Hints:
Elements: E1 2-12, H1 16-29, E2 33-41, H2 48-54, E3 60-64, H3 70-84, E4 92-96, E5 100-102, H4 106-113, E6 118-124, E7 143-145, E8 153-157, H5 158-167, H6 182-192, E9 196-207, H7 213-216, H8 220-235, H9 237-244, E10 250-256, H10 263-268, E11 278-284, H11 288-301, E12 306-310, E13 314-315, H12 321-326, E14 332-336, E15 348-352, E16 355-358, E17 366-369, E18 371-372, E19 376-380, H13 381-385, E20 396-397, E21 406-407, H14 409-419, E22 424-431, E23 433-435, E24 440-441, H15 443-451
Parallel strand pairs: 1-2, 1-4, 2-3, 6-9, 10-11, 10-12, 14-22
Antiparallel strand pairs: 4-8, 5-9, 6-8, 7-9, 12-19, 13-23, 14-19, 15-16, 15-18, 17-22, 20-21, 23-24
Helix pairs in contact: 8-9
Amino acid sequence: MTNTLVDIIIPVWNNLYYTKLCIESIYANTTHVQFRLFIINNASTDDTKEYLDSLKYNNLHIHHSIENLGWVKGCNIGLRIAKSLSSSKPGYYCFMNNDVIVSPDWLSKMISTFKENTGAVGPTSNAVSGRQHITYNKPNLLVEEASYLIGFCLLIKAEVVDLLASQELNFMDARFGIGGSDDLDISIRIKQRGYTLLIDRSTYIHHFCSKSFEKITSDVNSFHKEKYGLLIEKWGQETIDTYLGYTPKIYIVIPSNNGDVNYKTMLSLLNTNIPYTVTFECKVRMMPDLARNIAIEEAIAHGFDYIWFVDDDMCWDDKDILIKLVNSKVDIVGVQAHTRLNPYFICVFKDAGELYESIDCYNKGVVEVDAIGASCLLVTIDTLKNMSKPWFKFKDIRLLGIDKQKVGEDIGFCVNAKLHGYKIHCNGDIEIGHIGLPQIVTRKTWEKLQTA
């Protein structure tokens, strides 16, 4: 057992079911490390107080607040209580949500990750933004330097906590209230002082995610967007970009003709790695060209950097799809997609005179094409500013090999863009599925049809 002491601080507010799971997992799975557990009960109105008072662990310290102080003040109070116990000085502080379940030896493994210049370490999880998501795990990659760490479980050197607490009235900035972007603020402050942030990929912690936020607001995404605005107000976008990495503002529009698009389901397939600056907008019960044109007006008016058009019947396996489109570093880029009905042709085209011919860009990287479908299309706002209105307009076209005439507002957009000197690109390394009947249409569906 290491002689290093760790103080674990967890503010809680209701959600007794998750609090029980969290505490039980800590006592079951925290081995080879000395720790003290500080629970800050933020005036819970369920049976949380009674449950906490029934616990008999010697290293458990409970503080009952008469009001809901929120996450940030709860952490600050927990820290002050821990510091008041002068019997032992901790080597680390761990700030944790109550809706997590820790895995065996989680704490000892995270401690072993620290290097001399490491300020904080975070684990991987199933529900977390950025590089800590388990989809980034790779064989033989146990530790990775991070641009920022998310605060669902954040282990910080005591000397760093002391340093940050001496610079501000409290360790955590009280302006962030009940939470949201407070972890990004801490990440900036740690990196400003010359420390690095590391992800321990050998440690997994299950995160139920936003269980307290869900009781406070029905729109968690808007809540985080507001909190990120406070971060911008405090630091300015240039400083944020310097310490956390460039975070482009992307407006996502999901046209829907029937109004039943579940954008939360689509969001679950996406890992933006862009903290709290992505806006989701569903335009329902209107033609897709009108929805997209309205979205462009809004994106320009609100100062976004990109707009991403994605249809509500698309799906993908790669959570990095949006970042990969941004990293294509071109003005207009789409991906290889197929129609959802037979003959499942590829919606990437070259101009063959009076006809548009469907072409195969699979696994060819970023290539220039004449036109592309807008079911998954990323465009820079500067490009749209320089194009004529309406951006999307139906254009009668004929597709080579298809007997009937098609109308395509996406083809019309590509023609409009090329008239203004812009090139159209397809990132053939990205595949997106189309939810058809009775199957999800991908390249394999199309290939089977060709050999039938």
